[in-house]
Amino acid sequence: MATTTATITLASSDIADNALNISNTATFYTAGTDTGISETTGLARKKTNSGSNTVLIEPGVANSVGADITADKSAKIYVKNTNDRGDGTKYVTMLILTREIGRLYGGDWMLIPYKASSGKNLEFTASDTTETTLEYCVFYE
Amino acid sequence: MATTTATLTLASSDLLTDNLSLSSTMSLNKGGTTATGLDQMNYHRAIIPTGTNFDLIAESDALKDNSNYVYIINKNTDVTDFVTLSINDEVIGHLYAGDWTFFPWSCDLSATATDSSVEITANTHDCTIEYALFHVGETLPNSGD
Fold first, then answer.
1. Domain total for chain B?
2. What total of structural domains would you count in chain A?
3. What ipTM was assigned to the predicted interfaces of this complex?
4. Alpha-carbon distance A101 to B83, whole Å?
5. Which residue of A33, A104, A114 is in closest CB contact with B104?
């Protein structure tokens, strides 16, 4: 087993009258255990200059990065839009199948749990045809 | 405007041959702006009874078509306890005891979206969660009195 941790710090000195400082660390365990997750896709990059829908993770599809991600357990996905924020009007829309999760603007990241099952693709759509680069990594069992 | 940052650090010394050490910081800005920070936030702590699917973050006209960010942590300590998160009926994944998630959220009020609420179900046992919504606005209910 491996020990992989994810720490988040949410900080602001002016969103409230007292400083906001939330910090928590999660250890990636297999579902319902305290055994560390030991498989990962590794960190990868995907570029697109299409404004159309693009598949990032295809669970269980042979020869794809998601080929071995098939279990409805405790997988985690990290995604970052590495583009500059620019004028703030360009983003990628992240989707589970056709259901929109939210928009990653340039520099934004997300970390979500992932219920892998056949056909349950993680997809994205860039807001225009500007070349967009996403970095991503899946931790799974 | 406020300045709020979210920093992620992913680390492991034994998942790969070499150390994994990744860090990323983002500012929570309003959509369509270069650097105008979100200046509204809700922070909650709640006990989610097991077995029922709830709207955790409901749609609101003031939230639509912009930037909102969601943070949720499962504060239970029994490793078998988990909550299932979904956008409407589309499950995102399971958040086990101690796990947290952070993601952008689109409040989509279009007819095709049907419902874009963030939903939660506790499994195994009741789950105590803390969650935050950093958002562009809030539609308060009219008191009606």
1. 1
2. 1
3. 0.97
4. 18
5. A104
